[in-house]
């Protein structure tokens, strides 16, 4: 009886005026010892189990078709479909051999659909489902139709340029790519040119000058935030050069990059991956590349005296985070643990730095750094480039610093004082060390950065502030912390006089190290810290920063909202 139902020809379900291009394909196919009603409608592939259910209702026997387990997958999340050649019980998929001999004889044709399945905590996995049918033509029709629908997905990359940093994080980049990512790209018929970098800035310079970028649909980097930063610098600089834009002018409007960037996390912090995907997992990131996701991102340009220094997409941190980075670079041999070591050391050192921060507040945006909204997949604020007006924010006025401390230029605010940390977070900067991030309500693509000023305070208070990055408590709800959503800002360290800053810095370092050697117990702070710019050290303290709204795009979609009861919703979550 089942055999008969399975030998049903395919049913084309067409709507009015759709005769030429059927939209729906429906058949009864065999899967794991059961018959399934399988439906493809251009948007979803659905399969529902059908079992004959004999019931006695009011004295008469009823044979309703009972619908058992049901699954559906969005066509946009199908990775590939492949036909299986079953021949006398053997085929190219190991799992087939477990099928009963009778079945292989009756249903010798089969195709496998590989698709994205969601697991716990934003993790994606590649899952396979194999449908069996008794007729070759039916099998062909399914394979071809699914392939046609996949081909119609124009946002998917076909050819990628991949850079691997073999020394990032725990030095596993090459192995991660070869074992976890390359097989998925191959399954999705994505071709790649792979470059294993041989030195720092190899990827940046190759992209900037040599790479035939027109050949590719995207660039993938395997490494950490530093490696991603190299790709951003290569691509953004190349795009500006190709369009005749001068990067040295801080006011210049930059041209957005067309190629999307994929990040396969294999670094130490991997904050950009974590904050755009929700997890640092190479397979999840590879799947976001394959399905052709696109997430725009803001980029800050950093200048000193009308000279371009660097771009930043995550954290620009002076004081604490700059000092941690400078110290940790000397301990690279420790791997990712270097940040914990240097973090603890710099917390104990408790240096503060004096200077003035001036900033242009983003007054025309919806949202504030202290609201409870979070930038998530399909973020409403980012979809409008942050260009929405919300009026005054009560939270911001609550944290406004002492007026005597600042003077206002036209539209600009100025805060002078002694700071333990000056941080600009262009996105949340969430990472495994701080799952909500430095600025939990920051947006990926709203054209603003959250400027966080942590004034000199006791070690105990600073520890309270740092600990709040790891809990649900508000790290900005402290008298010595203020936060502003800004479009531009400048920092001028005290004693800084334009070009002489670097000389002073060098002399100052020598002077202070001399003083501190002479007075080991003294608690004086050096005059200058360094900027931590996405994990790279900047040589200047005085900088000017501007945010370029949505200058680049990632193969990501932002963090997806979690289903309320994810364990119940998805059996894979239990893994
Ligand atoms: C006593 C408990 C303290 C907990 C504080 C936790 C706060 C952590 C916030 C981290 C924000 C990180 C922002 C991202 C920075 C990265 O760009 C940079 C380079 O990353 P990578 O190239 O992958 O190595 N990472 C850092 O600067 C590490 C900062 C760690 C500070 C403890
Ligand atoms: N082949 C290489 N040899 C040495 N350094 C490299 C190489 N390729 C990239 N780099 C540099 O390594 C630094 C750290 O890379 P990253 O991938 O971010 O690892 P981590 O997260 O551990 O810091 C970056 O500054 C990058 O420019
Ligand atoms: Ca932003």
TrEMBL record:
Family matches, as InterPro entries: ATP-NAD_kinase_N, CERK_C, CERK_PH, Diacylglycerol_kinase_cat_dom, Lipid_Phosphate_FormReg, NAD/diacylglycerol_kinase_sf
One example GO MF annotation: ceramide kinase activity
Any single Gene Ontology cellular-component annotation: membrane
Top-level division of the source organism's lineage: Eukaryota
Pfam family, one: CERK_C
PROSITE patterns: DAGK
GO biological process: ceramide metabolic process
Ranges of residues in domain DAGKc: 155-306
SUPFAM superfamilies (UniProt xref): NAD kinase/diacylglycerol kinase-like
Keywords recorded for this protein, A-Z: Kinase, Transferase
PANTHER family: CERAMIDE KINASE, SPHINGOSINE KINASE
Protein name: LOW QUALITY PROTEIN: ceramide kinase
Native source organism of the sequence: Salmo salar (Atlantic salmon)
Gene name linked to the record: LOC106584603
